[in-house]
Amino acid sequence: MKKKAPVAIRVNPDVDPKTHPYISTGLKKNKFGVDLEAALNAYKMASELDYIEIVGIGCHIGSQITEAEPFDNALKSLKALIHELKQLGITVRYLDMGGGLGITYENETPPSLSEYAQAIITELDDPKICLILEPGRVLVGNAGILVSRVLYRKSGSSKDFVIVDAGMNDLLRPTLYHAYHAIEPVQKKDSRLIVADVVGPICESGDFLAVERSIVDIAAGDLLAVMSTGAYGYVMSSNYCSRPRVAEILVKGKQFDVVRQRENYEDLIKGESIPSFIDE
Question: pLDDT tens digits, residue range 111-135?
């Protein structure tokens, strides 16, 4: 086509983001990006191609990062690469640092946005490079809750269970990452505290929202708010065990509206068909 394609290469700076291993993306052992030496060779190769225009460098070291140091270390590595590229006559206009800044689910103390910004500004110090950030979770994580109804209580020989109508298909993070989500009654109660597993109705021992959690004593019919589900909540949900996905409601003050309709069983089989070679 003889058109120049603007390109950036995602670099793996081999930085430990100090987060859950499943959401660590910046170490050499992770599948993401190319290491610094390979990136340098790739940029050299790209600079010799007629229809490739080198414009940037990309990087993303992980998610739910609660310290500024990993970002600082990643930026130092990228700055060194940018300097080497300049020595070769290759300049970049864009630096995409990705996202990853964490939020408070329980007792985490991630850097504030201003601390995060200051760490990057102090280290970058190059006014000719356009910085790109992808904040994601830090904007929406604590803007959403999952509302679930208690179906019944079950007392086992070794622990108590609170069975709710939401399951691992609705919120996968507790099962996948053993992630903590605070669980509060929708209507405040001055009740005693109990210790129980909050579990869903799916036939999996991994179908839980909380394990051995201290929560307010609740009864069948009560509504619970599972907190901090605005990120990696609905987008990771599924129709596992033929469960239609929930509705999404946007709330502003006393106003609310349905922004995604609740699925039904017709939605589950939409698009399916009986093969023509199957006898009726």
Answer: 898 888 888 888 887 778 999 999 8
What count of other Cβ atoms lies within 10 Å of the Cβ of residue 201?
A: 13
Residues 134 and 150 in one domain: no
Q: Phi and psi of 55, rounded to 5°?
A: -120, -20
Q: For residue 101, what are the domain limits?
A: 5-140
Nearest Cα residue to 60 out of 36, 40, 32:
32
The 10 Å Cβ neighbour count of residue 210 is 20
Query: Has 203 been annotated as catalytic?
Result: yes
The answer to pTM > 0.90 is: no
Domain boundary among 140, 167, 191: 140
- Residue 131 burial (C-beta neighbours within 10 Å; 0-12, 13-18, 19+): middle
Q: What Å distances lie between residue 219 and 16, 108, 164, 173, CA to CA?
A: 44, 30, 11, 25
Query: Tell me, what DSSP letter sits at residue 23?
Result: G
How many domains is the chain partitioned into structurally? 2
Residue 129 CB contacts under 8 Å (≥ 6 apart), including other chains: 82, 92, 93, 94, 95
**φ/ψ bin of 157: left (φ > 0), alpha (ψ from -120 to 50), beta (otherwise):** alpha
Q: Are residues 55 and 165 in the same domain?
A: no
Token pair 């864009």 in the structure block, residue: 94
* 82/77 Cα distance (integer angstroms): 9
